[in-house]
Amino acid sequence: MTNTATRTAPAPRLGPRALNRATLARQLLLHRAPAPTTSAYDAVQHLLGLQAQNVKPPYYALAARLEGFASEQLSTLMADRAVVRIVTLRSTIHTHTAEDCLTLRPLVQPARERELNQFRKGLVGVDLDRLAALARELVEAEPRTLKQLREALLVEWPDADPFALGLAARCRLPLVQVTPRGLWGRSGQVALTTAEHWLGRSAEPAPAPETVVRRYLAAFGPASVKDMQTWAGLTRLREAFERLRPELLTFRDDSGVELFDLPDAPRPDPDTPAPPRLLPEFDNLLLSHADRTRVVLPDTKGRNWQGNQAYRTFLVDGFLAGLWKLDDDVLTLQPFGRLTRGQREELVEEAGRTLTVLHGDGTYDIRFGTVAQ
């Protein structure tokens, strides 16, 4: 008897190089996005923000991704309040468009509430609703440093832990860093006010998870549910993926993990050449997947970190291949392994381009060094 039941074809497999090239294409790292087709604002929006623990990383991130980028493009957006610096994804500072600031922060608010639970011992007797109202009043009267905010809150709750008071304000309120913090070459100390006050408009409702899933896949896919949860610092996103399943493609990685993707998203040939790129510390490319083997091969895992400190990195053939640093007028490239002569030449050319784009007012020496053990 013939079994006529329809069998579901197995999902196609995507190996590390296929995932690498697809992700690089989404991240504008396989080919720099041309100007003026893609502006700095467009890139920040497409990438759902740029990791910004320090001031310079967003500038280096865009220099690696955009043709014709200049530092004043991002500085102008920040000065005009079209983009802002705020704690969002993974409880870290990101540079977001104003629109994403007002919607993504509400999306991740449950994670900020969970973070606050870790500091309850220092907040005994503190009315958190009252704290949020008072902190809002303080920072909207004038931008405050975190130290100033803590001191003002201690007047109300003298027995509380000052650190916990500041963190509670940051978790409960969408606090943005006001300029000149974040401007290239003009950065000052961190002073905070609310996003609503700084942008002159109310926060938006959190977007439907499905909307953010689509945007995440456009910038980081193909990806698993766990990948997106790692990127966002959220849990329980499986249901959103399942609701979208009819409109998405599915694949499997080499470990059999199910990956989702947008049907019309780029998935270049795995043998597509990938030019070298210099990336800042904490670049989103290296932080936005649970499984990072699409960019970080097993023999380089953990080599771009020491404790909580991340180093500036560079890619060769699309994968993490070393560290770089800029000291005064010397840029040092520190490969993890042996590079071919051609790879070294291309890397030096890319380093020179980075210096010209962001440090074009001086003469620099580009050298190769070794990674400190």
* Average pLDDT metric: 94
Lateral strand order in the biggest sheet: 1-3-2-4-5
What are the segments in which pLDDT stays under 50 over at least 5 consecutive residues?
1-6
Shape: globular
Q: How many angstroms separate the termini?
A: 67 Å
| Alpha-beta classification | alpha+beta
Identify the notable features of this structure and list them briefly.
globular; alpha+beta; 15% strand
Please tell me about this protein's structure.
By secondary structure, the chain is α+β, with helices and mostly antiparallel strands. 38% of the residues lie in helices and 15% in strands. The protein has 13 helices and 14 strands. The protein has helices at residues 16-26, 40-46, 57-63, 71-79, 98-117, 128-141, 146-156, 162-172, 195-199, 209-220, 225-232, 238-244, 341-358; strands at residues 50-51, 83-87, 93-97, 175-177, 192-194, 249-252, 258-261, 277-279, 305-306, 309-310, 313-316, 319-327, 330-335, 365-368. Strands 1-3-2-4-5 form a five-stranded antiparallel β-sheet. Helix 13 (341-358) links the parallel strand 13 and strand 14 (365-368). Helix 6 (128-141) packs across helix 8 (162-172). The protein starts with 15 loop residues before the first helix and ends in a 5-residue tail after the last strand. Mean pLDDT is 94; it is low at 1-6.
